[in-house]
Amino acid sequence: MFFEKLSKMLNDVFRPSPKYITVSVAQAAAGPAQALPPSRLPRHVAIIMDGNGRWAQNRGMPRSAGHAAGTEALRDIIRASDDWGIEALSLYAFSTENWARSKEEINALMGLLLKYFNSEIDELDEKNVRITILGDVNGLPDAQREAVCRAMERTKDNTGLKLNIALNYGGRAELTRAAKLLAEKVKAGEIQPEDITEDLFGQQLYTADSPDVDLLIRTSGEMRTSNFLPWQLVYAEMVFDSINWPDFDRARYLQCLRIYADRDRRFGGVDEARPEKKTEDNADD
Questions:
Q1: Tens digits of per-residue pLDDT, 201-257?
Q2: Which of 12, 76, 82, 98 is catalytic?
Q3: What is the model's pTM?
Q4: Are the CB atoms for 69 and 89 separated by under 8 Å?
Q5: What are the DSSP calls for 166-225, one per residue?
Q6: Cβ neighbours of residue 205 under 8 Å, at least 6 residues apart?
Q7: Which of 36, 157, 208, 217 is deepest in the core (most CB within 10 A)?
Q8: Which element (helix H / strand E) includes 46?
Q9: Class of domain 2-6+36-262
Q10: Is residue 71 within 8 Å of residue 110, measured between CB atoms?
């Protein structure tokens, strides 16, 4: 086991980084091939994978078929993120609010979750991907809880792509959990209230070892964050794509990355070397 982990670490260190990310986008009807320098890539991409049900309904199929098709899209986007050198990828798979859906749809989602972890774990581990579950794992059914816990344990020492999967996740619940953890530390005398900083608070979150989100992508045309990573998204660029998730592919993904690369990220400041963009609402100024 030690030598397997060592081999994966060495492969990750010496794997050559591409000078440019290039892919044909003809299948997405977006024009000629595009190239993107890795220096313009986001470190952390978060995706709200929306539109599975609508994709299925548009084809006269049950919603569960849309979720199954969405799993196929998920595989390729994870592989693309790993191939292109994205540091962290966070995926909104199942929210705390999703328990309100029909029993049939929940059972289908839970079945796909179990199937995914059982079928993909070998490849993910071999590619040095580290899996972290964001959310209340204890609230999952027994079989699913055991599967995700095995996946996290098996990949905990991997040093490649940080794959964060939000399951039974709610953003406000995550912030409440972090506040309680800090309150317990204060109560135990481990820290004083004045010791609490933004950095310390961030260390209590599920994503403590990932950078803040640089780019949020949401498919299906909805334009809201839906209680996903509220702390981590404070300076994220957002791209809302009208395509439903099962049709989201590498070509579409690259389009979103190019949109991100073209954004002027000032974080409230002004880049003196670049001319000001004229906009109706410059909230960062």
A1: 999 999 999 999 999 999 999 999 999 999 999 999 999 999 999 999 999 999 999
A2: 98
A3: 0.84
A4: no
A5: EEEE-HHHHHHHHHHHHHHHHHTTSS-GGG--HHHHHTTSTTTTSPPPSEEEE-TT----
A6: 174, 178, 231, 232
A7: 217
A8: strand 44-48
A9: alpha beta
A10: no
Q: Which amino acid belongs to residue 254?
A: L
Tokens of 57: 């309904």
**Per-residue pLDDT reduced to its tens digit, 160-212:** 999 999 999 999 999 999 999 999 999 999 999 999 999 999 999 999 999 99
| Residue 98 appears among annotated catalytic residues | yes
Question: Does residue 52 have an active-site annotation?
Answer: no
pLDDT at 141 over 90: yes
Give the 3-state secondary structure of 217-272: EECCCCCCCCCCCCCCCCCCEEEECCCCHHHCCHHHHHHHHHHHHHCCCCCCCCCC
Measure the CA angle with vertex 236, ends 44 and 165; round to 5°. 45
* Token representation of residue 22: 């290039």
Domain boundaries, the chain: 2-6+36-262
CB atoms within 10 A of CB 2: 7
Q: Which of 50, 125, 241, 249 is catalytic?
A: 50
Judge whether residue 29 has pLDDT over 70.
no
pLDDT at 280: 45
Mark 245-281 as b/e (b = at least 16 C-beta within 10 Å). Answer: bbbbbbbbbbbbbbebbeeeeeeeeeeeeeeeeeeee
